[in-house]
Design a protein that fits this description.
The structure is a single chain. By secondary structure, the protein is of the alpha/beta class. Helix content is about 40%, strand content about 15%. α6 links the parallel β5 and β6. The chain is globular and about 75 Å long. The two termini are about 20 Å apart. The model has no long low-confidence stretch (mean pLDDT about 100). The structure holds pyridoxal-5'-phosphate. Pyridoxal-5'-phosphate binds next to α3 and α4.
């Protein structure tokens, strides 16, 4: 089976991990700040805070951006449930706004219409590694004096109008799950220029407890003294994982370049097929191509095409069922039909294999299988 995505670990990644396993610190050691410094340097974000998953990074980012019980976030339903769940963890609610039909990204016009008194955060999701339309979203957030914070789980390494992911929003969460642009097995980070957000996210990941001398309410108690200032969690990334992340980060450009080659090959090889649409791409955007999502023109053709591709050995996937279609969200009172573009996107989408380690032979096989299957089934 050729998977839709997978990690690429090389001997030097393994060496980096083993070195930490032999060192004094498995966690709370020097590898974590080193990884954070490398992330900041690679993205241009002044601050990076590493956490143990993209989900915990979302939770910390929302809390650090001031989201509290009774507030609302405005976000896309075409995402992994975590984008919305992290708002629920804080007692906030989620307003789902429809997506652009071509990119699957949050529609800025819909966001402007959805802004309400309780809205605290606007949360675009860089679907498939294609950055959302930040220059259109920014003025909406500013008009309502709310923060723009991004779910960049797919988009580390992508650019929008020459600017890097990590610098496009007030804060950006990224994920290091194995299928993501780089991996730490599980892991995530918050990237931001806002020192307050960075400090709060760092506090949040370690129980809300600080030892920073300047922050202590009672600084003279002794060198053992520490204080809990907010309610936090144990969301720490280990040093073992951070060392892997630092080494993986040195390969980000190479990984993204290969993803772009694969996307360009699919674009060229599949362009003439009438039964499917290829991924939308806006001018001035350099996507990271975390996913390559084709869409059948007819929703009823998606399932037979998907099943044929699986039978032929392609580990295709579907991203994403609209979050509010999950029974849990239906139980909260959300109903189908509110975001028709996202629903149609889901009903027609198939994610083809794309990952940096994909060989030319695997790519050729994938293209041949897709062409044949589309001709028969779509
Ligand atoms: C869009 C999106 N947001 C958030 C997450 C959560 O990241 P993690 O799996 O690292 O917790 C994911 C990961 O699957 C994702 O795809």
């Amino acid at each position: 089976m050729i998977p839709y995505g997978r990690q690429w670990l090389e001997e030097d990644d393994i060496d980096a991990v083993v070195e930490v396993l032999r060192s004094d610190f498995l966690t709370t050691g020097p590898a974590v700040p080193a990884f954070e410094a490398a992330l900041a340097a690679a993205t241009g974000a002044p601050h990076a805070v590493a956490l143990n998953s993209g989900t915990s990074a979302l939770h910390a980012m929302y809390a650090a951006a001031g989201l509290v019980a009774g507030d609302e976030i405005v976000t896309s339903p075409l995402t992994f449930a975590a984008t919305a769940n992290a708002a629920l963890y804080l007692g906030a609610t989620v307003r789902f706004v429809d997506v652009e039909p071509d990119t699957g990204n949050l529609d800025p016009v819909g966001v402007a219409e959805a802004m309400g008194e309780r809205t605290k955060l606007v949360v675009p999701v860089d679907f498939a590694g294609h950055p959302a339309d930040y220059d259109a979203l920014r003025p909406v957030a500013e008009r309502y004096a709310v923060r723009l914070v991004a779910d960049g789980a797919h988009s580390l390494g992508a650019r929008y109008r020459g600017r890097q992911v990590g610098t496009l929003a007030d804060a950006t969460e990224v994920s290091f799950h194995p299928v993501k642009p780089i991996t730490t097995a599980e892991g995530g980070a918050v990237l931001t220029a806002d020192e307050g957000i960075a400090r709060h996210a760092a506090l949040f990941r370690t129980h809300g407890i600080t030892r920073e001398p300047l922050d202590l309410h009672h600084p003279d108690e002794g060198s053992w003294w520490n204080e809990q200032h907010v309610l936090g969690f144990n969301y720490r990334l280990t040093d073992v994982q951070a060392a892997l992340g630092t080494n993986q980060l040195t390969k980000l450009d190479r990984f993204i370049a290969r993803r772009r080659e694969i996307a360009a090959a699919y674009d060229e090889a599949l362009a003439d097929l009438d039964g499917i649409e290829l991924p939308g791409r806006r001018p001035d955007v350099e996507p990271g191509w975390h996913l390559y999502v084709i869409r059948t023109r007819v929703p009823a053709r998606r399932r037979p095409l998907f099943e044929r591709l699986r039978r032929e050995g392609l580990g295709v996937q579907v991203h994403y069922l609209p979050v509010y279609w999950h029974p849990y969200y239906q139980g909260l009172g959300y109903r189908r039909g509110v975001c028709p573009n996202a629903e149609r996107f889901y009903q027609t989408a198939i994610s083809l294999p794309i990952y940096p380690r994909m060989t030319d032979a695997e790519l050729t096989r994938s293209i041949d299988v897709v062409r044949d299957a589309v001709a028969r089934y779509a």
